[in-house]
Amino acid sequence: MHPQHRPPRYFHRPLHRRLEPASRNGIVLDGLEEPGYERPSEPGGLSWSLLTGVPQALVCQRQLR
Q1: Distances in Å between the alpha carbon of 28 and those of 11, 63, 65?
Q2: Which tens digit of pLDDT belongs to each residue from 8-62?
Q3: Would you say 4 and 44 are in contact if contact means Cβ atoms under 8 Å apart?
Q4: Phi, psi of 9, deg, nearest 5
Q5: DSSP per-residue codes, the chain
Q6: Is the pTM of this model over 0.85?
Q7: Which of 1, 9, 12, 59 counts the most CB atoms within 10 A of its CB?
């Protein structure tokens, strides 16, 4: 990576804040999964084993009600 002159912007947004606009318009969350992936099969491959507090993916299912 090239040196960065400014720190990157990271914004923490709780899940309820992300879903609030949809909820106000009648869209509700009716499914939530945090699936994991298999470990890499080759040595030296990328691994999530050191990032146990970070979900690999967050999948939301919503419905209009």
Answers
A1: 24, 5, 7
A2: 677 778 889 989 999 999 999 999 998 876 666 667 666 777 777 777 788 899 9
A3: no
A4: -90, 120
A5: -PPPSSPPP-----HHHHHHHHHHTTEEEEEEE----PPPSSTT---STT-TTS-S--EEEEEE-
A6: no
A7: 59
Q: Number of helices (H) and strands (E), helices first, in the chain?
A: 1, 2
Shortest CA distance to 16 belongs to which of 2, 34, 29?
Answer: 29
Give the per-residue pLDDT at 46. 67
The neighbouring-strand residues paired with 40 are none
